[in-house]
Design a protein that fits this description.
A hairpin with a 4-residue loop joins strand 1 and strand 2 (24-30). A 6-stranded mixed β-sheet has the order 1-2-3-6-7-8, covered by helices on one side. A 6-stranded mixed β-sheet has the order 9-10-11-12-13-14. Strands 4-5 form a two-stranded antiparallel sheet. The protein is 23% helix and 22% strand. The protein starts with 12 loop residues before the first strand and ends in a 23-residue tail after the last helix. The protein has helices spanning 56-67, 88-95, 105-115, 190-200, 228-234, 244-255, 264-271, and strands spanning 13-19, 24-30, 36-40, 45-47, 52-54, 71-76, 98-102, 131-133, 138-141, 144-150, 159-163, 166-168, 208-210, 225-227. By secondary structure, it is of the alpha/beta class. The protein has a single domain, classed as Metallo-beta-lactamase, Chain A (4-Layer Sandwich). The chain is built from 7 helices and 14 strands.
Amino acid sequence: MSTYPVDMSVKPEVEAFFDPATNTISYIVKDPSSNSCAIVDSVMDIDYAAGRITYEHADELIAYVQKNDLKLEWIIETHVHADHLSAAPYIQQKLGGKIGVGDKIMVVQDTFGKVFNEGTEFQRDGSQFDKLFVEGDTYTIGNMQAFAMYTPGHTPACMVHVMGDAAFVGDTLFMPDGGSARADFPGGDAGTLYDSIQKVLTLPDDMRLFMCHDYGPNGRDIAWETTVGEEKAHNIHVGGGKTKEEFVKFRTERDAQLDMPKLIIPSLQVNMRAGAVPTDKDGNPMLKVPVNAL
């Protein structure tokens, strides 16, 4: 059983916002006993071919917070996403709140600081974020206690955030018929991912789990909420007692067939900066394309 401070009597109100361009689900999570809330895994829109950034998805989140007179306390990133850009600083500018990510962001910054040939002005100490979470860290959203679980494997900085009876799993797990995320990015590891998933599955069976992505496998409607019990029983990659060896073999073979995410190059540059777009020497927003580096 889990040794985490789980209080499932607290049932936050969870509002989901699906972004069809990146198949990402962002969440507004409200403390049931106050008007305080958190935003998990926001999205900034990009037309990569045109080099154009816009904020339609983030504006939806902002409008919801304002319409419902909520107080934004936290902007949580479950990890450094490789398939969408974070809108965290844009949202923070409009609504306040602290931007938080796992402390292993420093590993990611070091790795991709080299890939993108960032100069010494790029800080690799996580200082772009307001809070660096470590395993077991607790924090509050209004009166509701939340905590962070360290769940590496997909990336070195992945964390699952548990808020009352709801856990936001990032890319550590997909819906039962979606399985799990890839583990072949720099710093990823299939065996580590299996261990992290097993750790999540020690949470109570009735714990609600909220996905960061869904792709509607086999033509089903997009979905993003399941439970620990459902994942344990039915997840096609790890459920029903599948062994670590079975998982590692499958995941490694599957990852070798996958293309790089379409937005990995802009996403990593922006997300390792907490959602800030890098600039050139004249202060103009500018993205790099490293050749044959990923």
